[in-house]
From TrEMBL:
Keywords, ordered alphabetically: Phosphoprotein
Annotated signal sequence range: none
UniProt lineage: Bacteria, Pseudomonadati, Pseudomonadota, Gammaproteobacteria, Oceanospirillales
Name under which the protein is recorded: Signaling protein (CHEY,EAL,GGDEF domains)
Gene Ontology molecular functions: cyclic-guanylate-specific phosphodiesterase activity
Domain of life: Bacteria
Biological process according to GO: phosphorelay signal transduction system
Coverage span on the entire protein: 464 to 741 of 744
Keyword Iron recorded: no
EAL domain sequence ranges: 23-277
Length: 278
């Protein structure tokens, strides 16, 4: 029995070493990718279900290596977070998204909102607010067009710090959304003490709205909660007309998902917008 246990331990150590090695390679690759312009932003439309018109975009990062391989953000964002590279990368993301929004405003003047994902590591960083200030000052945008998306894991930090940071973001004129809402297992009472402008209902709940009348219970609860707490609510990952109808029936009038548009690079987005506003 002793040998078996030792054998497992060796194998386990081996696994960890392999994983650490892979993360190290990923981090090296990511640093290089950043320097060599393999990273770019894509934007997914957010739709006002009352008018059917676009009213916002979510900025999402992409990594396409020189040989054409796409590496999904779910794989490299965690590596960027644990190494701290996300702070520098996050500045680049913010700057790119705001520059692209300014360009879209100059061309289309739609007053679109831009949602920018913020990692908890960025949010906690002492220089975070200065970075926001600097980036906002670079561009000619109305500040309430800018919305930072943070997850519930941020809300589980020290609540006074979170509250102070949110207030400072609001003082700058920007907005804050809570992302992947309902997946964080956190205590709901933080919603009463922290001020978010918008709740984003996680795709996993929207997926369950596809069959029969099942699966609307949690979305309905979230939509009502949002209304009671004076937040707007947007559904994520909407893929079918049926989901759209159900959401409207529950008084949710904002959505994003493949049903309306996939995340697009700037060139595709402009073609999409030309068709959309025509
Ligand atoms: P997220 O913020 O929850 O982003 C939504 C994800 O759902 C995106 O995946 C988007 O492409 C995908 N999606 C949108 N509509 C649909 C749909 O109808 N069906 C399906 N199947 N998927 C849909 P993506 O771009 O792969 O990003 C995954 C996660 O990586 C994001 O989740 C976010 O946590 C992180 N991420 C992406 N870009 C950034 C970034 O610029 N900064 C940071 N900090 N994190 C990012
Ligand atoms: Ca998001
Ligand atoms: Ca989300
Ligand atoms: Ca608002």
């Amino acid at each position: 029995a002793k040998d078996i246990i030792r054998g497992d331990a060796v194998e386990y150590t081996h696994e960890i070493e392999k994983e650490t090695h892979q993360r190290m390679l990923m981090l090296q690759g990511l640093r290089k990718a950043h320097a060599e312009h393999e990273l770019f932003m894509v934007y997914q439309p957010q739709i006002d279900l009352n008018t059917g018109k676009i009213n916002g975009l979510e900025a999402l990062i992409r990594w396409k290596t020189h040989n054409g391989t796409m590496i999904p953000p779910d794989q490299f964002i965690p590596v960027a977070e644990s190494s701290g590279l996300i702070v520098q990368l996050g500045e680049w993301i913010m700057c790119s998204a705001l520059r692209d929004l300014e360009h879209l405003e100059n061309r289309y003047a739609l007053g679109l909102q831009m949602g920018i994902n913020i990692s908890p590591v960025q949010f906690r960083h002492p220089n975070f607010l200065n970075t926001i200030k600097t980036e906002l000052n670079k561009f000619n945008l109305s500040r309430n067009q800018v919305e930072f998306e943070i997850t519930e894991s941020v809300a589980m930090m020290d609540i006074d710090t979170v509250r102070a940071t949110l207030k400072q973001i609001h003082d700058l004129g920007a907005q804050v959304a809570i992302d992947d809402f309902g997946t964080g297992f956190s205590c709901l009472s933080y919603l009463e003490t922290l001020h978010f402008d918008r709740l984003k209902i996680d795709k996993s709940f929207i997926d369950k709205m596809s069959n029969e009348n099942a699966g609307t219970y949690i979305p309905e609860m979230i939509i009502n909660l949002g209304r009671d707490l004076d937040m707007s609510v947007i559904a994520e990952g909407v893929e079918t007309q049926e989901q759209v109808s159900r959401l409207k029936g529950l008084n949710c009038f904002e959505a994003q998902g493949y049903f309306f548009g996939k995340p697009m690079d700037m060139k595709s987005l402009e073609i999409w917008l030309d068709g959309h506003i025509a």
